[in-house]
Amino acid sequence: MAKAPVLTPRADDFPRWYQDLINKAELADNGPVRGTMVIRPYGYGLWERMQAEMDTRIKETGTQNAYFPLLIPQSYFVKEADHVEGFAPELAVVTHGGGKELEEPAVVRPTSEMIINDYFAKWVQSYRDLPLLINQWANVVRWELRPRLFLRTTEFLWQEGHTAHATYEDARDFAAHIHRKVYEDFMVNVLAMDVVPGRKTVKERFAGAINTLTLEGMMGDGKALQLATSHELGQNFAKAFNTQYLSKEGKQELVWQTSWGSTTRMIGALVMTHGDDNGLRVPPRLAQIQVVVLAIKGDDAVLAKVRELGDRLKAAGIRVQVDDRTDVPFGRRAVDWELKGVPVRIEIGPRDLENGTAMVARRIPGGKEPVGIESLVELLPGILEDDQALLLKQSRERRESRTAEVSTVEEAVEAAASGWARIPWAALGASGEARLAEQSVTVRCLVAEDGSVPDDEDAPGNVAIVARAY
Amino acid sequence: MAKAPVLTPRADDFPRWYQDLINKAELADNGPVRGTMVIRPYGYGLWERMQAEMDTRIKETGTQNAYFPLLIPQSYFVKEADHVEGFAPELAVVTHGGGKELEEPAVVRPTSEMIINDYFAKWVQSYRDLPLLINQWANVVRWELRPRLFLRTTEFLWQEGHTAHATYEDARDFAAHIHRKVYEDFMVNVLAMDVVPGRKTVKERFAGAINTLTLEGMMGDGKALQLATSHELGQNFAKAFNTQYLSKEGKQELVWQTSWGSTTRMIGALVMTHGDDNGLRVPPRLAQIQVVVLAIKGDDAVLAKVRELGDRLKAAGIRVQVDDRTDVPFGRRAVDWELKGVPVRIEIGPRDLENGTAMVARRIPGGKEPVGIESLVELLPGILEDDQALLLKQSRERRESRTAEVSTVEEAVEAAASGWARIPWAALGASGEARLAEQSVTVRCLVAEDGSVPDDEDAPGNVAIVARAY
């Protein structure tokens, strides 16, 4: 008799599988205000690990964390015209405070360029104050009409970096550094996602930017998800806020700026990249629980062994949890850890103790085999690294097998039904991009022939990556 | 000729000294919406260290972090009557979202009992789900008419813990554990503040609580500051949200709850407890920069030495920063590090190199003396621990010397002009408390005769700590 599936199978209904997984793995719930979300402890634990890994990389660039207010006077939202136009439809507005109507309504930040630049203009005086490198971890609100947990929520959590530089080149190089050495490095080496770094077309640029760099990932259904962006802002905001510095040569000059962000959307990406019909699969380097040690029965010797093994694994630097809740049926706990995607389960019962072995279940390749208990401490680090590498390999193979080389708009639309298309930008251009949009297909990014990120939208050999996207 | 003071002296004008210090040490700026604040990188660094130390202690209790939405439907704010009455005057309300007036306005959370309990009611089913121990790090908004940076701001950052338990005793013990083993331990052993743990009177309780536990600190001007609170909520919210569990005996029972919070106000407390006329003094265990190594001149040998010494100190586990900005005058940099309160400055110039010594300036006791460079790595950990202990001792001595034992309301008011008063609660009572309030003096907390926290407001021997407060 076939077991009833725990989740709606991906092949049957991918969006429903996604909702099922988020619900059953206890990652998040819908909030009461439309589009908001409650991030449950297991989901938030993923975010905390993402924050820790990202924060280290961000600080290594010399960037410091700070915190700017949630509420921004509505009048600020007229300063940079493109930026304002981009965000106006999404704003949440506070009109009453302390029981009274406010003289000036306040916008709940949708992003912080408008308020941070106000302070940059005060803090930057001389070339000695540059580069000014600031990041904040914060919540933002963008009114969302078609919400989906983690992917598009009215409130989300993110980091937003904001920097000011003396020259165009410094700003450009910094935006590129964040793009590749912070974001891409984190996504490839921690999230095990085979992301594609590229530049956005003019149409897809951030409101107020002169260039937007992006990382695009292919999800399990072949659609694309934009994972993080890094923007060159040129002098657009510097002009709007009159942010000037006294150069070494004694001249007043406008600064050059960048901004860059990554969000809780990465949790949704994790689910849709590595999840399977049994649940999530968390890359070992990210996992807050890398190994769970389960007592099959509430036998004293078994409980003593799982606790002792837990202590030894912890001492060896492995992030481990002991599951000794033997009042909950073993099968239910095993399914739950599988749903949550913990990379390795070590299961120990009375018979295992007699044999000196434990059943080791590997979530990522799948499968289960007995292993000598005494050899676990030595074996596990290698298993975790192998499984980390396997996830990245599977992600790469999916992208490669589901990406088609095409040369016409029609072929691109067809390919986008099940994956990505690569098409020469010279053959597509802005007019082809507009025709794709009629079919809900977008240019995710432009890449150079050799896979690098083009310095120029119209460089010969540029290839457009085309897909349907979340 | 006397040097012009860097800050307004404390004795001249304490509030202005506080503002001066926050400004010149670059801790924070006022935000554009009244009462909001920008936490600058050096100030935010203090908060990050507080978060790290607190988060570890919170997780050791078995509490898990999660995240609940910023926006709460206005209709939720009718569920627990006392709670609602307490917060109604401070609410910020979003009435427009996505360019339209909302059908139901949303409140920007002033605290999260109202939304978290909605989910607790769903998540708690059986005794097996208890205790449910949740914490979140978040921003909250309470409209503030008399704002002061860090102490009272319209938006502030905090952690808020929310827990549900099977029995009254479990909830009571957990609230007490957070009070003493998390908050007090952190404040005494990291912030070096000699705080007094006690319980609030009925008048001073949190809106909706059956008991509020508090930690009160004496500031440099003798006033009191409430530093963190831990509340027993009884079954008030359980009744409002109908949060029930199936007991082992198969009966439906209401849960017992706690909530507890600590905020960016602790940064203001740090300033007012340890600051002096030259600036802040940061306790070494908190400091994100424990030691700064300054190159006096841009001499090659000097620069090489400060960098090498910085590397060695870092390798020894000391949080160190190298200041080799020799294009900024040395005196200005020294004053700046003094303002910022970095515990130890190591100053090295060409003459020091010849002697094999460095000038070591200790911010906490004050004073400066030459020390052999080679012995620094060995000496510094002891110096930092001594200075940590000295700050706590100074904080205790101030409280002891400025606290008077009194027996009448009049004496209590007189003592509160420059410090604290201790008065038997039996002699004061609710009527005496009301008379104190007419003089802007409040009962900060009740303590038992032996210094412990009373289980009962009216236990014989209870002493009221009475003061003016921030």
UniProtKB/TrEMBL annotation, chains A, B:
Subcellular localization: Cytoplasm
PROSITE patterns: AA_TRNA_LIGASE_II
Domain Aminoacyl-transfer RNA synthetases class-II family profile: 34-283
Pfam families for the chain: HGTP_anticodon (PF03129), tRNA-synt_2b (PF00587)
Organism superkingdom: Bacteria
Transmembrane segments: none
EC category name: ligase
InterPro entries named among the record's database cross-references: aa-tRNA-synt_IIb, aa-tRNA-synth_II, aa-tRNA-synth_II/BPL/LPL, Anticodon-bd, Anticodon-bd_dom_sf, Pro-tRNA-ligase_IIa, Pro-tRNA-ligase_IIa_arc-type, Pro-tRNA_ligase_II_C
GO CC terms, sorted: aminoacyl-tRNA synthetase multienzyme complex; cytoplasm
Gene Ontology annotations of biological process type: prolyl-tRNA aminoacylation
Enzyme Commission identifier(s): 6.1.1.15
Reaction catalyzed: tRNA(Pro) + L-proline + ATP = L-prolyl-tRNA(Pro) + AMP + diphosphate
Keywords: Aminoacyl-tRNA synthetase, ATP-binding, Cytoplasm, Ligase, Nucleotide-binding, Protein biosynthesis
Assembly information from the UniProt record: Homodimer.
Function: Catalyzes the attachment of proline to tRNA(Pro) in a two-step reaction: proline is first activated by ATP to form Pro-AMP and then transferred to the acceptor end of tRNA(Pro).
Similarity-based family: Belongs to the class-II aminoacyl-tRNA synthetase family. ProS type 3 subfamily.
Name of the protein: Proline--tRNA ligase
Source organism per UniProt: Streptomyces davaonensis (strain DSM 101723 / JCM 4913 / KCC S-0913 / 768)
Gene: proS2
